[in-house]
Design a protein that fits this description.
2 helices
Length: 102
């Protein structure tokens, strides 16, 4: 159940009340019986503790090591990009050869 904050308009006392969401707001001060207003609350705060909050922060060390092994190294990446460039060059050369000049 949520906690609601109230403030009395006469005696200025502030208090909290646990109420269900569907319950009517309080109308009387428990001390003096005068009118109260429900205050706007910030609600429960969400607290994050630690250095960061990413999905990989709480992985086991063995998982992290196997993930490093699965990643291609930078030399493998450059080799793949070189092969890709050569393929595009070959396809562009073959296209230019097949065109007939008018």
């Amino acid at each position: 159940m949520p906690t609601y904050d109230y403030k009395c308009t006469a005696c200025e006392i502030q208090f909290e009340k646990f109420q269900g969401i569907t319950e009517e707001p309080l109308k009387e001060c428990p001390d003096c019986g005068e009118e109260v207003k429900r205050l706007i609350g910030a609600g429960a705060g969400l607290i994050f503790k630690g250095s960061g909050f990413y999905i990989t922060d709480y992985r086991s060390e063995s998982y992290k090591e196997s993930a490093k092994k699965d990643k291609p190294s930078s030399s493998e990446k450059s080799e793949k990009s070189d092969k890709k460039e050569k393929k595009t060059e070959k396809s562009s050369e073959s296209k230019s050869k097949t065109k007939d000049p008018d």
